[in-house]
């Protein structure tokens, strides 16, 4: 196979090609301010990007119009094999020999942007990118190629998306905006406790949204305590009413569900409340609540089925335990609660439950917040511990028994030590499992069309354009292997995927330096690498870590503890002290972290932090005055305000 | 006192080579190398203290003189300057008290069973805030001590260009000389000069934070005291603002008017286009204010418990005898004129902070300018202070954070056709369940129109605006483009993620109201 040569900026002739679309674009640009539009004769960056755009639309036009396009080189043996294959099938092909056209190198470059494939031959069948020589032969052997050739444009839809969560919906809406015929299949399989919900996926129904609202309710409890110190007078014991809160939150969620349905309707996306399953290539079976089956076909598919909470697989877990799928709409206060797990879901739930004044215990098998910076994770945990959450470390449940029915009832939990033979028993009203999540990829017929999944994790491996091993099937969201499981990531990747599929952009989703925040009682925001990961990648001696404890101004008068909030940045000494990890533990960590994440996208360095003026008095300003390095071992406790 | 000065001089008698300073015509001044201090800082506020601590850390012999002239109402305070005593710190704490009042109202929606309304006790809040401020005063003194900076609680004035005379509370005088002198005396609130009763009955921000009793029904003839009016309204007081012209001069005008709109819809009364003419005390102790409507010329009156003037600040330079040292000030503003190295017309006399002409009046700018100045003086550095893209936040009930250019400035510098403004209305998640109105939650990013669409300014109106703005200020400092900001993944669900989701340009005319999630 032929690798494309390195970027060749030379003066291509692409701009001369007659093309109605680009002509139109050029016409529109007359309205742009002077200087933006470069004349074809004047060299400059905008000239080459304009020429590139034209070439790109020319190629997309070619792909759009042809049944089969082979981008080939006349001397390449692999190209020859593919051409022979199609001629043996009696299929006429549009062949573009890149070594025989003037702008062949540039075509290859643009092609690699469109398809993420740098080599020839590069084959498209009925607008679907099949791949190179090997993939074409594989498709031929599996029958997919014949299918592709047959079905021409006789599909019901341009795009069917399985899963109406953040990623699926953003992809659907974007594709619809680009004028495509789109269908979304969404179906919530009720949890073992019978909980189910509306359109919008995890984030809206059983994730970020209700979680943050319950977190806010818990923060309000803290604010009520603080407010006395700030002069607000009330003497009565303030109690929290679970039902009132849950009802208000569920009302808000219902309005969001409704909003999603409306916005799909407005954009003419077909929404079907059915369970989607592949039955053969390009064909899906949709089963609704009543068991009625309907079949739909599409040229391309996006899998965005997300994940559901994992169960322990012990006696009594599915019968008596709840998960985050159930908690946010629980019709009664959970009472004394055992949270099993130390994921961010576990700690966030434990945090707000304790904030309502409930007796909460967290059972942890090994470490807190796996994958996050462990120093920060321990600080998150110790703050929770100081604020009434009990931790049972190095234990796992082995059996859950019901002692009493009720709302809530009484459950007996038997747990054993992970280190010895010790067992313990406890009685709780509610046991909440938050030990991880499993991808919903095993029961959607992927094996029927040969989409590979990671057998162990159930996750779907994709290339950097979110394409699975089956060329017309893509995936976004939490089911992607080795990608962050975050709503905004899914939204961004879904949207960009639709733009790429339908020719609006070439931009790929950037999974680097994705910021996130854990909404534990003391919030933890981060972006970039954890200290452990940074040491693993860059070696300890190449890093400089700056850190400090701080005391938010609002905490002083409220009489809350000093030397609890903490800020840390990790810098690469050999790259201008570039900030490669950002960590903050404190109030409003999410609000603080976002802007710094944008700055990290722009190459934030320690020097720039030092040169930036703080906003006084905020928590965020602490990053503009970081002086003490971790390696110095100097004391970072705050004695007063400075 | 004289003995003390002598003793200090003895301490300063270290041998050091130094070029002969310009000393012509100086009477009684110590010669270079024999002066009391390497650095004398006049003014113990944020800028002055930062200078003093930095110089001490670099091994210099430093003194700080600070003296708080009581306000016309007799209010005085300790070391630390405006920010700590009568500025940022007490203001943000009282703002927090008001925010907590809002949260108490939210609480029932989130299931907390609090009987409403909850009354507010000014005394309790004021005492807590004042105690915190006093602990900071103490902290500053300890820090100076730790760093061996000599602190004098004296009122200073120049004797000559190397010598300052200080008068202590009891009237005792002391002479202090230094090789370098930094003036950081800041500013004080301005009183109107032609309004009968203004000085007698009115208070300023110098007094409000130190009131023992609630100010009651208050009246602010103002264009800057939105923050004070905001928290007073927030703790349940009847508050009226009188404005002659536009609020928040120098800030983005669209944002300013939204700030006002929000305050007006949350109970602060506004009297626009009016000018006060007279304040009188009524027999029952209340204050009667008379004002004139500037357009109709009609007079009107109202009675209030407190009248708070917030009509600007004047630099504290009058009593410094700057002419003795030859330090030039602006004839219009009386502020000290400096160059980019913060040097005044006298090369070894510098000025930082609010007292300087043409600088943003912000604590962190004063601190950074002070530290950089001292590093240039004693640390071999040549880094100059960059006054561009200074982020700031106005802690009105709905906070307003901004960095970089306002839309007006951007248009003025680059021309309307070269500026693209992206904007959005949004609803903070917490507002939904609380049933709060989010009409004024708004964010806008001012960019160049030419790709890569460099970000010129960011304006954010909403909860925690200060926290949101800080990081983006870094981004703008890094030369962020619109595309780079859009490529940043949001943190969900936060308010700050709205910034990285700004897709609608003003030019497009599309509705910037965010719907759904």
Automatic annotation (TrEMBL), chain A:
GO CC entries: cytoplasm; cytosol; mitochondrion; nucleoplasm
Keywords (A to Z) from UniProt: Disulfide bond, FAD, Flavoprotein, NADP, Oxidoreductase, Redox-active center, Selenocysteine
Domain Pyridine nucleotide-disulphide oxidoreductase dimerisation, residue spans: 514-625
Cofactor field: FAD
Taxonomic superkingdom: Eukaryota
Top enzyme category: oxidoreductase
Domain annotation Glutaredoxin: ranges: 68-130
Gene3D superfamilies found in the cross-reference section: 3.30.390.30, FAD/NAD(P)-binding domain (3.50.50.60), Glutaredoxin (3.40.30.10)
Domain FAD/NAD(P)-binding: 157-494
Enzyme Commission numbers on file: 1.8.1.9
Cell cycle found in the keyword field: no
GO terms, molecular function: flavin adenine dinucleotide binding; thioredoxin-disulfide reductase (NADPH) activity
UniProt region (Disordered), positions on chain: 1-52
GO biological processes: cell differentiation; cell redox homeostasis; spermatogenesis
Any Pfam family hit: Glutaredoxin
NCBIfam families listed in its UniProt record: GRX_euk, TGR
Entry similarity comment: Belongs to the class-I pyridine nucleotide-disulfide oxidoreductase family.
Listed name of the protein: thioredoxin-disulfide reductase (NADPH)
Gene: TXNRD3
From TrEMBL, chain B:
GO biological-process terms attached to the record: cell redox homeostasis; response to oxidative stress
Top class in the EC scheme: oxidoreductase
Listed cofactors: FAD
Organism of origin: Pan troglodytes (Chimpanzee)
Cellular component, GO annotation: cytoplasm; cytosol; mitochondrion
Textual note on the cofactor: Binds 1 FAD per subunit.
Keywords: Disulfide bond, FAD, Flavoprotein, NAD, NADP, Nucleotide-binding, Oxidoreductase, Redox-active center, Selenocysteine
Protein encoded by which gene: TXNRD2
Protein name: thioredoxin-disulfide reductase (NADPH)
Superkingdom of origin: Eukaryota
Catalytic reaction(s) noted: [thioredoxin]-dithiol + NADP(+) = [thioredoxin]-disulfide + NADPH + H(+)
GO molecular function: flavin adenine dinucleotide binding; thioredoxin-disulfide reductase (NADPH) activity
Protein EC: 1.8.1.9
Cysteine disulfide links: 83-88
Binding site for FAD: 92, 354
Membrane spanning stretches: none
The Pyridine nucleotide-disulphide oxidoreductase dimerisation domain, residue ranges: 390-501
Chain residues that bind NAD(+): 312
A Pfam family the protein falls into: Pyr_redox_dim
């Amino acid at each position: 196979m032929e690798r494309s040569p390195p970027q060749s900026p030379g003066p291509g002739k692409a701009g001369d090609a007659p093309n109605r679309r680009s002509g139109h674009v050029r016409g529109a640009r007359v309205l742009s301010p002077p200087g933006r539009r470069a004349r074809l004769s004047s060299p400059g960056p905008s000239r080459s990007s304009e020429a590139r755009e034209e070439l790109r639309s020319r190629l997309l036009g070619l792909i759009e119009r042809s049944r089969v396009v082979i981008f080939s080189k006349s001397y390449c043996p692999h190209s020859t094999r593919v051409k022979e294959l199609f001629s043996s099938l009696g299929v006429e092909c549009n062949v573009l020999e890149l070594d025989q056209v003037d702008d062949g190198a540039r075509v290859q470059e643009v092609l690699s942007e469109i398809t993420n494939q740098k080599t020839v031959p590069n084959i498209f069948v009925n607008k679907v990118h099949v791949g190179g020589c090997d993939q074409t032969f594989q498709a031929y052997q599996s029958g997919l190629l014949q299918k592709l050739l047959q079905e021409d444009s006789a599909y019901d839809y341009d795009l069917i998306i399985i899963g109406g969560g953040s990623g699926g919906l953003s992809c659907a809406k974007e594709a619809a905006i680009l004028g495509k015929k789109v269908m979304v299949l969404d179906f919530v399989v009720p949890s073992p406790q019978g909980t189910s919900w509306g359109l919008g996926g995890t984030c809206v129904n059983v994730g970020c949204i209700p979680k943050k609202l319950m977190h806010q309710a818990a923060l309000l409890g803290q604010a009520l305590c603080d407010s006395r110190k700030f002069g607000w007078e009330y003497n009565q014991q303030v109690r929290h009413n679970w039902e009132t809160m849950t009802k208000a939150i569920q009302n808000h969620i219902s309005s969001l569900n409704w909003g999603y349905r409306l916005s799909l309707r407005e954009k003419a996306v077909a929404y079907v409340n059915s369970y989607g399953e592949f039955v053969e290539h390009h064909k899906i079976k949709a089963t609704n609540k009543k068991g009625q089956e309907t079949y739909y076909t599409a040229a391309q598919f996006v899998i965005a089925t997300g994940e559901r909470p994992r169960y322990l697989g012990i006696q009594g877990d599915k019968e008596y335990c709840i998960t985050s799928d159930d908690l946010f709409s629980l019709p009664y206060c959970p009472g004394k609660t055992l949270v099993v797990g130390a994921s961010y879901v576990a700690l966030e739930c434990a945090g707000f439950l304790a904030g309502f004044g409930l007796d909460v215990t967290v059972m942890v098998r090994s470490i807190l917040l796996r994958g996050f910076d462990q120093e920060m994770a321990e600080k998150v945990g110790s703050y929770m511990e100081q604020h009434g959450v009990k931790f049972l470390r190095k234990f796992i449940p082995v059996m859950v028994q019901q002692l009493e029915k009720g709302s809530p009832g009484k459950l007996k939990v038997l747990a054993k030590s992970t280190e010895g033979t010790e067992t313990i028993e406890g009685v709780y009203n509610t046991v909440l499992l938050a030990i991880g999540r499993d991808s919903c990829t095993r029961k959607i017929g992927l094996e029927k069309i040969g989409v590979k999944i990671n057998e162990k994790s159930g996750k779907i491996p994709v290339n950097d354009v979110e394409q699975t091993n089956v060329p017309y099937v893509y995936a976004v969201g939490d089911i992607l292997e080795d990608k962050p499981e975050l709503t905004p990531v899914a939204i961004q990747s879904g949207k960009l995927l639709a733009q790429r599929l339908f020719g609006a952009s070439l931009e790929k989703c950037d999974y680097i330096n994705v910021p996130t925040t854990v909404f534990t009682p003391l919030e933890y925001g981060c972006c970039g690498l954890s200290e452990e990961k940074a040491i693993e990648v860059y070696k300890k001696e190449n890093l400089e870590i700056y850190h400090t404890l701080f005391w938010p101004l609002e905490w002083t008068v409220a009489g809350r503890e000093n030397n609890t909030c903490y800020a840390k940045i990790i810098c690469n000494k050999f790259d201008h002290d570039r900030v490669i990890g950002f960590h903050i533990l404190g109030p409003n960590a999410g609000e603080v972290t976002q802007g710094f994440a944008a700055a990290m996208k722009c190459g934030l360095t320690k020097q720039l932090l030092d040169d930036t003026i703080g906003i006084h008095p905020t928590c965020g300003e602490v990053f503009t005055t970081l002086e003490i390095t971790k390696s110095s071992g100097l004391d970072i406790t705050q004695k007063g305000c400075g | 006192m004289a003995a003390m000065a002598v003793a200090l001089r003895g301490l300063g008698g270290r041998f050091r080579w130094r070029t002969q300073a310009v000393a012509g015509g100086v009477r009684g001044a110590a010669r270079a190398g024999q002066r009391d201090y390497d650095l004398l800082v006049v003014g113990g506020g944020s800028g002055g203290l930062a200078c003093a601590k930095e110089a001490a850390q670099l091994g210099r012999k430093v003194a700080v003189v600070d003296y708080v002239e009581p306000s016309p109402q007799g209010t005085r305070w300790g070391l630390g300057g405006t920010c700590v005593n009568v500025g940022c710190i007490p203001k943000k704490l009282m703002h927090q008290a008001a925010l907590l009042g809002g949260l108490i109202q939210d609480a029932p929606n989130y299931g907390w069973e609090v009987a409403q309304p909850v009354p507010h006790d000014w005394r309790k809040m004021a005492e807590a805030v004042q105690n915190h401020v006093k602990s900071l005063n103490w902290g500053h003194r300890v820090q100076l001590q730790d760093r061996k900076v000599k602190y004098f609680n004296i009122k200073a004035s120049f004797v000559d260009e190397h010598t300052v005379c200080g008068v202590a509370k009891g009237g005792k005088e002391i002479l202090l000389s230094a090789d370098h002198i930094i003036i950081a005396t800041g500013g004080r609130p301005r009183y109107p000069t032609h309004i009968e009763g203004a000085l007698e009955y009115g208070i300023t921000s110098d007094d409000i934070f130190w009131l023992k009793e609630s100010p009651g029904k208050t009246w602010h003839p103002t264009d800057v005291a939105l923050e004070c009016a905001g928290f007073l309204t927030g703790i349940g007081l009847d508050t009226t603002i009188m404005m002659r012209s536009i609020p928040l001069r120098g800030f983005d005008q669209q944002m300013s008017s939204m700030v006002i709109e929000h305050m007006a819809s949350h109970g602060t009364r506004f009297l626009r286009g009016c000018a006060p003419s007279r304040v009188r005390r009524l027999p029952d102790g209340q204050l009667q204010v008379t004002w004139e409507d500037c357009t109709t010329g009609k007079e009107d009156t109202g009675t209030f418990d407190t009248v708070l003037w917030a009509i600007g600040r004047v630099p504290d330079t009058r009593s410094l005898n700057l002419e003795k040292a030859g330090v030039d000030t602006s004839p219009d503003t009386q502020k000290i004129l400096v160059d980019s190295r913060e040097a005044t017309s006298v090369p070894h006399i510098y000025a930082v902070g609010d007292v300087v002409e043409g600088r943003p009046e912000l604590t962190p700018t004063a601190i950074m300018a002070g530290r950089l100045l001292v590093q240039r003086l004693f640390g071999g550095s040549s880094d100059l202070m960059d006054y561009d893209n200074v982020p700031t936040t106005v802690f009105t009930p709905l906070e307003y954070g901004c960095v970089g250019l306002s839309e007006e400035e951007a248009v003025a510098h680059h021309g309307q056709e070269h500026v693209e403004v992206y904007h959005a209305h949004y609803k903070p998640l917490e507002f939904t369940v609380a049933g709060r109105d989010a009409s004024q939650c708004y964010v806008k990013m001012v960019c160049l129109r030419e790709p890569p669409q460099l970000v010129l300014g960011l304006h954010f109106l909403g909860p925690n605006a200060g926290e949101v703005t800080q990081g983006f200020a870094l981004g703008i400092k890094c030369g962020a483009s619109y595309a780079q900001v859009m490529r940043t993944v949001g943190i969900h669900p936060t308010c700050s993620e709205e910034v990285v989701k700004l897709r609608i340009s003003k030019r497009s005319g599309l509705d910037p109201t965010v719907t759904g999630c």
